[in-house]
Amino acid sequence: MSNWRKDHLGTSASEPLPVLIIGNGPSGICLSYLLSGYTPYVRLDAVHPHPLLQRKLAEAPGVSILDQDLDYLSEGLEGRSQSPVALLFDALLRPDTDFGGNMESVLTWKHQKERAIPHMVLGRNLPGGAWHSIEGSMVTLSQGQWMGLPDLQVKEWMCRKRRGLRNSRATAGDIAHYYRDYVTKKGLDHNFVSGAVVTAVEWGTPVSGGSGAPAPSPLFQVSGVLTTEDQSQQPFSLCARNVVLATGTSDSPARLGIPGEALPFVHYELSALEAATRAGTVTPASDPVLIVGAGLSAADAVLYARHYNIPVIHAFRRSVDDPGLVFNQLPKMLYPEYHKVHQMMREQSILSPSPYEGYRSLPEHQLLLLKEDRQAVFRDAQGLQKVFGVALVLVLIGSHPDLSFLPGAGTNLAVDPDLPLSAKRNPIDVDPFTYQSTQQEGLYAVGPLAGDNFVRFVQGGALAVASSLLRKEARKPP
Question: Which contiguous run of DSSP H or E holds residue 459?
């Protein structure tokens, strides 16, 4: 760990950090890259296929994208994100990807160290965040090329590693390795602190600058616990002028809220099934594993269990043909394994003879309670109760962001402060062109916390934050 980081992680009253990023997943990594002086410019020979965007880009040749009006540039763009800046950055990085093309980026990157803003990135895991917690052989939902960060294509990196994409998609293990490698290759290591758990973020009134005038933002006090290389734990406390929330949403698994849910055979991560398989507590001869949920995490668990011939009961509350079911939104050619699970969910219902041995689906079933003797009690769509014996229960019904380190757990920062914070339904309310909280000066949110749920689009939030912070730096008195 560098002396610079040691100074700031201590309890001494050192100069406040300009920027502190909480979370070291793709959002945090991309933002660190942009704050380290890596600056995007449009290539002089580049012609963007979007005529309106090309005309706007031609109006400011030689001016960094970070220094241009992101609102103006992104106006009129459409795509698979609700964020205009996410669409803009995606269009610059992957100009024609939504039309099946592979046109190279119109951007070129210059490392201008004088533009760097000192910052620190705190993360529980290694750089890459939650990607290190996903079973390595799982294939990503997004195409491999969409998982990449600026100026290092995943395909190019995998070729160097003598790895290949499978049906245009990469494994979670490869992507986790790619993110960790990206930090090293781009020289960002000195900004990252792994093993850091933030326990509190507090803020007060703006601090005074050298001339006696108030600074443009309040001072944030961030405290937590750092697990060192020898596994000892030490508290840390530091001050920052700006804090960026980039923690994602995988910290707090959603729960059913039923009796028996706290029993020791109930789990919320696929890794529990992996561990039970290795330990021999679930086998082809044991009672079934109960998997609750109808999303991709549940499908991954079904695929894992099927690979090891472990019997499965798969329960979910929706109808198999519900248009809101994620399987009904995925192209079959790109996602054959998920459509196989969807086919099994339909054809292996308890209502019909099972053509697939060792798997039974329970569509439109609600789990009511779990008993100590490992009996699971359900209610079906007709109100009838059914009981099944199970060896292990996996509840995979999504997750919520854990912002317990913020005052009021961050609920006052949401679009609707009267509802629970949710990446899909009620994210943190941010300015769409700076990603700064509408409720708190100097506090930013990126990635799923701000409603951007795919790696492809989280990078736009990082661009917006970096642009905003650079403007703040430019306004600071000498």
Answer: helix 455-475
- Element of type H or E holding 383: none
The pTM of the full predicted model, rounded to 2 decimals, is: 0.80
Check residue 133 and give its pLDDT: 63
Rounded distance, CA 394 to CA 378, Å?
15
Q: How far apart are the first and last CA of the chain?
A: 30
User: What is the DSSP code (8-state) at residue 169?
Assistant: B
Rounded Cα gap, residues 187 and 152, in angstroms: 13
DSSP state string for 387-446:
EEE-SEEEE-S-EE---TTSGGGGGGGBSSTTS--BTTTB-B-B-TTT-BBSSSTTEEE-
With a cut of 70, list the residues of the chain below it in pLDDT. Answer: 1-14, 97-101, 129-147, 158-170, 205-217, 249-251, 334, 349-356, 476-478
**Both tokens assigned to 322:** 């519900």
d(CA 437, CA 443): 6
Taking only the tens place, the pLDDT of each residue in 107-120 is 999 999 999 999 99
CA distance linking residue 343 with residue 111, whole number of Å: 50
Half-sphere exposure of 336 (CA within 13 A, CB side): 5
Question: pLDDT (tens digit, 9 = 90+) per residue, 170-198?
Answer: 677 778 888 898 999 999 999 999 999 99
What does DSSP assign to residue 234? E
pLDDT reported for residue 269: 87
| The Cα angle at residue 399 between residues 179 and 361, in degrees rounded to 5 | 110
The SS3 call for residue 103 is: coil
Closest CA to 118 of 208, 6, 32: 32
Q: Which residues contact residue 356 at a Cβ distance below 8 angstroms, ignoring those fewer than 6 apart?
A: 344, 347, 348
Nearest Cα neighbor of 195 from 286, 126, 280 is 126
CA-CA distance, 320 to 324, in Å (whole number)? 10
Q: Which helix (H) or strand (E) holds 84?
A: helix 84-93
* Whether the Cβ atoms of residue 465 and residue 435 lie closer than 8 Å to each other: yes
